[in-house]
Amino acid sequence: MGRGSGKSPGAAAAGPAPGDYPIDTGTATLERDAYSDTGWILKVNGVPSSHVDLADPARLDFEYMRWIAALVRARFPATEYDGGEHDGAARRLRALHLGGGACSMARWAAAEYTDARQVVVELDGRLAELVRAWFDLPRAPLLRLRVGDAGVVLSSLTSATRELVIRDVFAGDKTPPELATPEFTREAHRVLAAGGLYVVNCGDTPDLGNARAEAAVIGSVFPHTAIVADPAMLKGRRRGNVVIAGSDAPIEPTPALVRELLGGAVPAKMLDDAAVRAFAC
Question: Is 20 exposed, middle or buried (0-12, 13-18, 19+ CB in 10 A)?
């Protein structure tokens, strides 16, 4: 594998190339997807961070991202049918992504919601530059990449200006604890418009201590919650990802949503609000 550090600073402009690239927080490693001619895997300091398919931005290779997409799609159908003058028009989704990586979810949202307006917050400025060059992201105003600390940027935003806030921030394989506090969660709630959705990716071990704590915090701020994870994870049989959502509006496990979650390579279970609150105890 080639070494990205041996290239000139502008080398990434030609597109992705496998290698190790120095970034502000360590090393980014870009690898080809062995099963796809157009797929790429990004690792940050050795930890898998993102998967991108250059030919198909709607393809999400990581299961937890597909679960998030299912929740978002269920809450915000891409086409609006409200009986008004915009009946049948594309939904204009305003999304905030806390944690950028390779912007996989932002690329998906741009493909799903053609008039979306998105901001991606990434702590590592050099990584943001590389990702912008490698993966042909939509340009402003459709997608803005903002370099900064997630908490600082979140607190600077105007209230009720986003339908969707996704938190997917990791230091190594753990969420920084300051991003899982009641104070941070209340800031996310403040930024959401009525009926908006807050979704977090929680990585955890079989003891599920992080997930239970996060569910309790989100449940203390939002009147409605949901969890999506694979059943083995929820039974404490392995480590993995737990997706936790909060909203001021009910998050219903509709038949269509349940079918979609069961249909993936790793079938997932959805816990409704009552089950989440029992899980958090």
Answer: middle
What is the Cα–Cα distance from 110 to 117, expressed in whole angstroms?
8
8-17 residues labelled b (16+ CB within 10 A) or e (exposed): eeeebeeebb
Is residue 65 classed as helix, strand or coil in its secondary structure? helix
Q: State the residue for tokens 């970034």.
A: 23
What burial class does residue 33 get, using C-beta atoms within 10 Å of its C-beta: 0-12 exposed, 13-18 middle, 19+ buried?
Answer: middle
The answer, as to whether pTM is greater than 0.85, is yes
Closest Cα partner for 229 from 67, 111, 83, 25?
Answer: 67
* CA–CA separation, 232 and 77 (whole Å): 30
- Main-chain phi, psi angles of 261, to 5 degrees: -65, -30
pLDDT digits (tens, 9 = 90+) for 75-98: 999 876 555 555 556 788 999 999
